[in-house]
Design a protein that fits this description.
Layout lengths: L7 E6 L2 H12 L3 H9 L2 E8 L5 E8 L2 H10 L6 H8 L4 E6 L5 H15 L5 E4 L16 H15 L7 H6 L1 H4 L8 H20 L5 E6 L6 H12 L2 H4 L11 E5 L2 H13 L11 E2 L1 H7 L6 E7 L17 H6 L2 E8 L13 H12 L4 E3 L10 H13 L13 E4 L3 H12 L7 E4 L18 E4 L2 E4 L8 H7 L14 E2 L1 H4 L4 E8 L3 E4 L2 E4 L7 H4 L1 E3 L5 E3 L1 H13 L2 E9 L2 H11 L5
Parallel strand pairs: 3-5, 6-10, 6-11, 7-8, 7-9, 9-10, 12-22, 13-16, 13-17, 17-22
Antiparallel strand pairs: 1-4, 2-3, 2-4, 14-15, 18-19, 20-21
Length: 590
Amino acid sequence: MKKIPTPLVRDIHFDLNGIQSFKDEMTNSSIKNSELLLDYPTVYIVNNKDKKDKYNIYIGETSDIISRTEQHLKVDPTLREDWLEFYEAEEARMFVIGHDYFNKSLTLDIENKLMHYLSSVDSVEKVYNRRTNQQNRYYTSNYFEDIFSKVWRQLRKENRQLFPVESIIKDSALYKASPFHKLSEEQLHAKEKIKTKIIEAYSKNSETSQLILVAGEAGSGKTVLLSSLFYEINKLQQEYPENIELSNLNAYLLVNHDQQLTVYENIAKKLGIFHPKNNKIVSKPTTFINNHLPEEKVDVIIVDEAHLLWTQGKQSYRGKNQLYDLLERAKVVVAVFDINQVLTTEQYWEQDELQNIEKLAKQNDNYIYLSNQMRIAADENTVRWVRTFIDDQVVMNIPKDTKNYEIRVFENPEALHNAIKSKSSDGRGISRLTATFDWEYIDKKKPEDSDYWRVKENDWSIPWNLQLPVTPAEKRKNRDLSWAEQPHTIEEAGSTYTVQGFDLNYTGVIIGPSVKYRNGKIVYDRKNSQNKKATRRRTLNDGSQEYLSDTLLRNELNVLLTRGIHGLYIYAVDKELQAALLKAQDGKLN
């Protein structure tokens, strides 16, 4: 394998004296160093640390670092507030990065990934970049990952607070939902199609609302696509400066999930995405509907986890269907939807209604399906095993995975929990224990006969999520973190309410007594579920009241079994299901 040279990094004062000193240093430096930093493409990071030890940063790339920096210092402060802030800061600094392999495409990719990493760092308050620059293949693209890691390690030698170890960044929910991910061809095509549709609708100023439906199973890259779209739509005025109309276009992002809401609020805050009238640009659907009248349509609403929208009224929502209400309030609604992740009766779509919204999208060529499974790092046989377990309700022999994805069945939940704790501490990423909602949990209420609401099996138990106490300092530190990112949650069991929409390295799933194995098939028993929102009846359009628990409990299991990137650890409470799984692990099922 070819040896990759070490990057050259210089940390200088970001002012005119600093750039002059840098020029003088390079003049007296070796010819190679001088050429790499002065004559060839470079990447640079301007950063300013405030009194709270938080950084504001800008990442750029250029073929002439001296003239580019002088422009930032002499011209840009008169045009943009962010550059004026850097200019007036007493301790603003700039890292200049050079490398033997740098060319225009490679520096753009390095710039983009630095934006991705640094927007996920706790100590970074704001990233002032205005657009992404994802590149396709180019001459040195095969070396990109190695070069980037070397660049990051060199930067870390200069500032460990601003540049933490890569594994910490990759564990963060902000990183996983970042708009700066390098998109697949399928995602890129979808994003460009949606952007074009939005621009066309905005330019025509049509009164008819458009629905763009993005469908795909768990792990197909819907959230990353949506995040990238949200960022770029709100930055269109920079992409099309000649189009004065687009400078006023704005997009709202809605999600009916507390954990995901926190992540998106942080992304918007760090990337400076805001509404000029100070309206909340990221919120829950009910909040948005209650604060916006149909007569005052916004431009774009993007809905993540649109399968969590309510399709019937309740105490806090007086409408009948939140998706239809949103269509009344926007020129374009982009909804990311997976029917197999609907979890409660209040989210349920009857078949004819589901066909109607698909038809509405398809008639305008606005239906997009993402088919590539991107979460589970497993081969086709393993993915098929998981899908057969969920979709066909059949247990097959567990295949040996050629990509080292690990499906393991444990003899008891304690052994499963210990294995998850071991995986979570081995440096490969966050792993957590989860369970089907088959043990009682009442939010904001203490149990009468126990310290916590618990998942219990024989003599073993573990608290349900969102209960273990933390110190005030820990609470402040955890404020912007999802449930799984908080260290103490390794001693809790997560549910769909805390892990839906998130990736885990390894997922442990305790399959409770609502999931049984009878006569060679998996069956669902609503009487053994504590998820009242899934087991109660729903009044359908024809006036009949039906139980939907077979569908909703299967969807609950679908969410839990598809969280793990590298592994899935299982224990089943039902004896027949547990016996079948243990046989499947040994390849002894007929």
